[in-house]
From TrEMBL:
This is Protein-export protein SecB. GO terms for cellular component: cytoplasm. GO terms for molecular function: unfolded protein binding. Belongs to the SecB family. Keywords: Chaperone, Cytoplasm, Protein transport, Translocation, Transport. The lineage of its organism: Bacteria, Pseudomonadati, Pseudomonadota, Gammaproteobacteria, Lysobacterales. The gene is secB. One of the proteins required for the normal export of preproteins out of the cell cytoplasm. It is a molecular chaperone that binds to a subset of precursor proteins, maintaining them in a translocation-competent state. It also specifically binds to its receptor SecA. It comes from Coralloluteibacterium stylophorae. Homotetramer, a dimer of dimers. One homotetramer interacts with 1 SecA dimer. Signal peptide: none annotated.
């Protein structure tokens, strides 16, 4: 007697029958930068460090169902009025997304792909900060679903503003 041990996950055949496919082809570091402009003096600073994290995402269609997704994380640490370090990591991946309607494709590119890339970017940042002589930095998880929902709200608001600024049809 054979048992199905899938932990509730859809079998690959079920996914193909539904027509939607999501595959990770490659994950790679696209760009890395680390600067400690005030080293070694900054190591003796007693000021409480202030951290600022910026996040950006870019998607390129590589043709057909292949997409390059780039997740850029920029972490700036200041101590007092001096920059302790600046680290920027662009973690990228090539993904195949087939069989999704336009709305679902946008959601997959905006949530699932960054979720796959984030742990790699987090590790790269941690390694660079520690390798630069600073205490380990542990980047907290990011809720890409929430960020995507906020981005959708912003896009909808911008679309309403754009439509309200257009002259009424028929007035020439």
């Amino acid at each position: 007697m054979a048992e199905d041990i899938s932990n509730g996950a859809a079998a690959p055949q079920d996914q193909q029958a539904q027509g939607a496919q999501f595959n990770v082809q490659k994950i790679y570091l696209k760009d890395v930068s680390f600067e400690a402009p005030n080293a070694p003096q900054i190591f003796s600073e007693q000021a409480q460090p202030q951290l600022q994290l910026n996040l950006a995402q870019k998607v390129n269609n590589l043709g057909g169902d292949a997409y390059e997704v780039m997740l850029t994380l920029t972490l700036t640490c200041t101590a007092g009025d001096k920059n302790a370090y600046l680290v920027e990591v662009t973690q990228a991946g090539i993904f195949t997304l087939a069989g999704f309607d336009a709305r679902m494709l946008d959601a997959m590119l905006g949530t699932q792909c960054p979720n796959v890339l984030f742990p790699y970017a987090r590790q790269a940042i941690s390694d660079l900060v520690q390798g630069g002589g600073f205490p380990p930095f542990f980047l907290q998880p990011i809720n890409f679903d929430m960020l995507y929902a906020e981005n959708l709200r912003r896009r909808a608001g911008q679309q309403q503003v754009d439509e309200s600024q257009q002259p009424p049809a028929g007035n020439a």
